[in-house]
Amino acid sequence: MSSASCGQCPTLHATIAQQQAEITRLTGWVQWYRAKLAALTGAVMATERLMRDEFEQPSMPRGHLLSQVHERLTIALLEAEGK
Predict the structure, then answer these.
(1) CA pair distance 34, 38, nearest whole angstrom
(2) What is the pLDDT of residues 26-61, one digit of tens each?
(3) Which candidate, 67, 73, 40, 41, places its Cα nearest to that of 54?
(4) What average pLDDT does range 5-23 have in this prediction?
(5) CA 4 → CA 7, 10, 16, 74, distances in Å?
(6) DSSP assignment letter at 58
(7) pLDDT at 5 over 80
(8) For residue 72, what are the CA distances in angstroms to 20, 45, 51?
């Protein structure tokens, strides 16, 4: 056992530094996934709103609505995938 107190242990400090770096890295990923989820949620909510509005008071042919829904959701998925 060394004469240094536990708070002075270089191994402990190295382990703490590694864990802090890992926490920082994982926190970045969590923020990235939250942003992706928020974007997808927003796109789905906007698409749902379009569908609801069109069913309540149609302004376009139903076939056009289906293509609009498909296009909006496809774009949302592509953006989520980073394409």
Answers:
(1) 6
(2) 999 999 999 999 999 999 999 999 999 999 999 998
(3) 67
(4) 87
(5) 8, 9, 17, 61
(6) -
(7) no
(8) 40, 11, 11
